[in-house]
C-alpha cells in the first residue's frame, strides 16, 4: 500500500477508533487500483436543485447522482467569475489581490510554476482529457492534457436564424442577439449535447486502456444565453415562476455590493439601465431552469454510459459549478459579487464503495477539491496547494477547518459558521466599506450588521481573522 495512503488510513483509525470496520474495507478497496475520475464542471450552476431543498427544477439525473454521493451543503467558490474560479480550483491556489482576477485569467500566466491537478495526474500515469469548458481558455495549461477538445462554432451557439444573424461572428454578446432562445432542435444541436456525446465516445475508448483516466467534461449551460431545446422550456409553467424573496437592495447594504450586471445587458432584449421588468425577469428565470434541465439530461447520458460500460465501480465522479449565479436576488443578475447567491456552489462527489447519498454541512472551499482528489487516488499532494482535503468528511469525521474565504475585486469575504463578513479593501489592505450578515437570523442577507454599534467588537475580531485567513500572499504583487 502506498506509504502516504497508509498514513492517512492509520490516522483515520486512531481518530475514529473501533467503529471503522466499514471504512477500513472501503479505503482498502479504494487502493487496489488507481481510481478513474470523471470530473464534471457546469457553468453558472446555482445550488437551486432538489437535493439542496428546492423542488421546482426538474433534474432527475443530478438527483440520482446526489443519492449516490456526498452532497456538500456549504461549498463555496473562492472567486465568483469563471476564468479565475477554474484556475484557482485546478491549481489549488487562493485568489489574491493580484492573482486570479477575472474571466480572462489563465493558470499559465498567474501560476506558471504550479503543478495543476490534471498535470499531476498525468505525471502519475493518468490519461487526461479535457472536453468542453474546463479552463476558460481552451489551451490554458495545455501540457496537462493528453487531449483537449471543444465544439466547433460560435461560442453563443444560437440556433434561431434571427439570433445567428444579429450575433454575427461575435463570440461575446452583441446588441442584437437575445439573452435566451427556445428552438425546436435536437439536444445535439447545442454544444452541451455535443460535449455529452464526446464524453460517451471517450468513455468507450478509455474502457480498455491499461491506465486510469481523468476525464473532464465542461458543460456550457446554464451560462448565458439561456438557449435550450423547446422541450426543456415546456417542462415549466412560467405563470408559476416567482421573483426571489430578496428582490430588494436595502439601504444598509454598501453601494459597492451592487453592480449593473453588464454581462446580461450586452444582450439585445435586455434594457441598458434600470431594473429588469418583472415579466422579462420571469422569462429569464424560465430560461435558466430550462437550461438546467437540458444539461441534466446530457449529464445523465454520460452517467448511463459509465454504468453500461461497467466503469462505475472504478470511477470517482465529482460534479461542481464554477460559482453561484444571481437570478434577481438583490435585484442582481449574473455573478461578480460576494453575496452568498454568487459564492455558494453545488458540489457532489461519488466515491465507489463509500458514498451513499450522505450530506454534510461542513464548510468547503473550491481549493479543497485538488488535495481531496489526490488523497483519494493515493498521490502525494504538492506543497503549493493551499486547500485542505475533505476526505475526513467521507470517513464520517467533521473537519477542523470551519471557514472559507472568497473574493471579487476589492471585496473579500470570510465565511465562518452563520456569519458572512465582507470588507472592501485598498491596495494596502485597509478597508473602506464592510458588511456583515448572520444567516441564522437573516439568510437572505438583507440586514447589514457591520455598522451597528452592538456588533462593533465582533466586526473588529472578524476583520483580524479575515486577514489571518485570506492567504499569506494576498497583498503580494
From TrEMBL:
Keywords: Calcium, Hydrolase, Metal-binding, Signal
Annotated Gene Ontology cellular component terms: cytoplasm
Top-level taxonomic group: Bacteria
Domain Sulfatase N-terminal: 35-377
Matches recorded under InterPro entries: Alkaline_phosphatase_core_sf, IDS, Sulfatase_N
GO MF annotation list: iduronate-2-sulfatase activity; metal ion binding
Annotated PROSITE patterns: PROKAR_LIPOPROTEIN (PS51257)
Cofactor(s) for this UniProt protein: Ca(2+)
Family: Belongs to the sulfatase family.
Name by which UniProt lists this protein: Iduronate sulfatase
